[in-house]
């Protein structure tokens, strides 16, 4: 089969499709660092410092739901090795803290009461464990992973990073990710797994919410070698390699790279960033502006990825009221922007090539009222669109460009007007009279299947 057609047929699993539909969920960094005012603990912290006297996970859930988030991922264990549940395998946990509360259970139960999904982050790097840096550590880690997978109900997400250091014996730990993945598949088969190398979700390459110009979910297996390879090698695979590739690269799934791959996988990107400069709560920090958070939403959820926005509890165990207000503002703006479609009739123009279809959108309102055009491919068929543009029909027969983009994937939010701008380009008599726009696919890897076109 032609390699481009193979690339077009790389498909997501059911778990990946369900994850894409989540779109926006919360990260919650909480632990000894909250009380030591640090970002990375060293594992020597006294368990007695962890004492959130007003812990209220329902408050967390209420705040993240107000922003429109559909799930919560808790740092069950960070690099310091302190466990937010009473693990049987270590003394460095909440069971030896003054509060003695199982934070993982309280968070999981609050999520279920609030109607959102629950997941956890379990740091492979453990700076407290005596086993770290030895083969025995993988047994220790799997024991703790099994506790979390079997004692806290349904888990939608297991989040790993690849932070690694030296253990007490001066040796670096070799993580047995295939073994970890097998446990997750056994006990929580509906859960997706985040890791730099797959198998399901990969890192966007930064923690600032900075997008690439083109974010592909279909990427070389050299990048995500834990994923399922769905194609043969590219036509240039025997003339070079992709050993240089990493998530921080600006070009990943684009055509020049995949031609050199030895096989492609479906591994979409997650944007993980914090609502404030640090990941853990620091009193002096303020949340990012509404503008920055909204723009990050557009360039993550609106660019074929999902957004995992961290909101850290304070030393009382509550989300900071400054962050709560910002989340409410963000949710309000998202509802105002995407809560109600504009009436329109979408039709596919006849006679177009299968890889270059044109869609006409007849509006019931003037073009001047259109702020966003939202495109979605049917990714169950594969991600295929390489480039597209949006144009408007104006009085007098002119057809002017409004937007130009690259890939679409699960969702592409095309912003025609900026809600923060004092003046927008679609203001004027012509835009008030225009009532038709076109979406033209200018390049695709195979037959295009758009699932939806919506106008807001």
Layout of helices and strands:
Layout: H1 3-8, H2 14-22, E1 24-28, H3 32-36, H4 57-66, E2 71-77, H5 103-114, E3 117-122, H6 136-150, E4 157-159, H7 177-187, E5 192-194, E6 202-203, E7 218-220, H8 255-258, E8 264-266, E9 269-274, H9 290-298, E10 305-310, H10 321-338, E11 344-348, E12 358-363, E13 372-377, E14 385-393, E15 399-405, E16 412-415, H11 429-433, E17 436-444, E18 450-455
Parallel strand pairs: 1-2, 1-10, 2-3, 3-4, 4-5, 6-9, 9-10
Antiparallel strand pairs: 7-8, 11-12, 12-17, 13-16, 13-18, 14-15, 14-17
Helix pairs in contact: 4-5, 4-10, 6-7
Care to describe what's here?
Helix 7 links the parallel strand 4 (157-159) and strand 5 (192-194). The chain is globular, with a radius of gyration of 24 Å. It has an eight-stranded parallel β-sheet with strand order 5-4-3-2-1-10-9-6, with helices on both faces. The chain has eleven helices and 18 strands. By secondary structure, it is α/β, with parallel strands linked by helices.
